[in-house]
Amino acid sequence: FVIDEESLDGLLEELEIALLSSDVEVEVTREIKDRVRDSLVGEKKHWRESKEDLVVDALHDALVDVLEVDGFDFDSYVQDAEKPVVVVFTGVNGVGKTTSIAKIAERLENQGLSSVMANGDTYRAGANQQIQEHAEALDKKVIVREQGSDPTSVIYDAVEHAEANDVDVVLGDTAGRLHTSDDLMKQLEKIERVVEPDLTLFVDEAVAGQDAVERAREFDSAAEIDGVVLTKADADAQGGAAISISHVTGKPIVFLGTGQGYSDLEEFDAEELVDRLLE
Amino acid sequence: GLGSSLQDALEKLAGSSRIDEESVEEVVKDIQRALLQADVDVDLVMELSDSIRERSLSEEPPAGTSAREHVLHIVYEEMVEIVGDETEFPLDSQTILLSGLQGSGKTTSSAKIARWFNRKGLRAGIVQTDTFRPGAHEQSRQMAERAEVPCHVDPDADDPVEIAREGLEALDDCDVKIVDTAGRHALEAELIDEIEAIEHEVQPDLNLLVLDASIGQGAKDQAQAFEEAVGVDGVVITKLDGTAKGGGALTAVHQTDSSIAFIGVGEDVEDIERFDPDGFISRLLG
Ligand SMILES: Nc1nc2c(ncn2[C@@H]2O[C@H](COP(=O)(O)OP(=O)(O)OP(=O)(O)O)[C@@H](O)[C@H]2O)c(=O)[nH]1
Ligand SMILES: Nc1nc2c(ncn2[C@@H]2O[C@H](COP(=O)(O)OP(=O)(O)OP(=O)(O)O)[C@@H](O)[C@H]2O)c(=O)[nH]1
Ligand SMILES: [Mg+2]
Ligand SMILES: [Mg+2]
């Protein structure tokens, strides 16, 4: 028999609550709910499937669709691209940019690719020390300049260093910044304009709630991000932020940060996240 | 946020002195949406909307109050009930322990809070017990310098409990001692054990949970874990200079039966304020 709107609505409401409790943003949840309803209303229901199963399956597909938006494989991109590949990392304060850069440097090393880090965070207390200690632990080179220097020139220096020394990848760190700071967002635009990175990765944390959408939008318009690194997925975050960010930017999640160690970095798997979210 | 939609919803009640179920339901739906958009825990949102609905329908608006004003007043009352007043603590000698998730703003807040006490005429100092994060010592040193307060760090030590003990001794002539700790979350069992051990050594007068204003639905479980591990006397909400509404802090306060002690509104040591319930609630509701 055919599925009618009324019987769907009750189930969809429950699913809406489930998505919201998993940190999917309010508007995004509504759009997904509508998408699921449209895909199901008028559909013929197979005698074996329960209405609930049909809705959950449709929701599963809708969510995976949102997440698998034009995915790109970071590893193969870097392998094939002309060297040096310049990657700039940006995001709000404390999300895990610096730690993620260290993890990626390690990952590249394991794949036989050399990298140099650049500390474009010339502002925060202890920023130089932090990235220097990572570099030391990983036995990698890092370009730093004294506090107060122009971040653009630090990253630029690193690119020149990479070109002169045949280094494969430049990993450019930047200071955490809130999208509410005009000055800092302008500074980010300038870094992008002058450095012209091959990739700009937006770093955000899986524990973030509704605000993840707002900042993804703002950063995307300031810096045209190519992909997202979602950190702190190990903190039992449901991962709704991933859905919201991908939906709003249309950009893929490239990596998941799953802990504080150098090997705690995973390739993002949309199916896995959706299965977990819906269980 | 709720601002426009609550105003719209309440417009539907404008001019009416009677509050009917249907229009209250519309208002409640808008409130739910605003609270969820502000990151308030889903269960708490349901709890709040139930009381708002029930009170709106059963309570008589006071003479001369429109239905609209009546409902708005109920919403505010219910929110104030949850959030409470700013955390009370003496302007006197005490030890404060800061804990919270990775990157929430503890180290920055330790310097802000130390400076805040300084400006009240007390001598404050910081103990950095983070043995894990690269550059933590240098970060604390620099922040302490900006706040013009002493700071005890021990880059070569690897036992946070030991550092806490030595640090409290070293800062003996400080009235207020603020103990900073490494970030940790509910699922890191060893780290939860560690903060319990640190707390046991420090015996703080005030246990503050430092929360990022943008934390989502995970706030409830995280607050619960810290409540069980060390007990939460107050919450510090950081990064309120962004667009996050801080609903997670509301959840945390509700979960731990505590209150909000300070808010962080920027990266510099002066960017700290005491908590103002009305300001917080009107910002949260949009
Ligand atoms: N549990 C967990 N912690 C993480 C993860 N990624 C980073 N962290 C921690 O989060 C905290 C902040 O990390 P940083 O790398 O300093 O973050 P950031 O974005 O560079 O911060 P700012 O430069 O200050 O904006 C540190 O304590 C990290 O160890 C992760 O995937 N899981
Ligand atoms: N805009 C803004 N940034 C803040 C605020 N509080 C802290 N930050 C920034 O947030 C980032 C993280 O702050 P930290 O003090 O290192 O956080 P933490 O909790 O000590 O981090 P871990 O020790 O790694 O767990 C830094 O970039 C700070 O400058 C605030 O109120 N507003
Ligand atoms: Mg950093
Ligand atoms: Mg810290």
In short:
The complex is a heterodimer of chains A (279) and B (286). Chain A has 279 residues and is an alpha/beta fold.
Give me the secondary-structure topology.
The complex is a heterodimer of chains A (279) and B (286).
Chain A: H1 5-21, H2 26-40, H3 51-67, H4 74-80, E1 85-90, H5 97-110, E2 115-120, H6 127-138, E3 141-143, H7 151-164, E4 169-174, H8 182-195, E5 199-205, H9 211-223, E6 227-231, H10 240-249, E7 253-257, E8 265-267, H11 270-278
Parallel strand pairs in A: 1-4, 1-5, 2-3, 2-4, 5-6, 6-7
Antiparallel strand pairs in A: 7-8
Chain B: H1 2-11, H2 21-37, H3 42-58, H4 67-83, E1 94-100, H5 106-118, E2 124-128, H6 136-147, E3 151-152, H7 160-170, E4 176-180, H8 189-202, E5 206-212, H9 219-229, E6 234-238, H10 247-256, E7 259-264, E8 272-274, H11 277-284
One guanosine-5'-triphosphate sits between chains A (91, 93-99, 121, 124, 176, 231-232, 234-235, 257-260, 264) and B (102-103, 133, 183, 185).
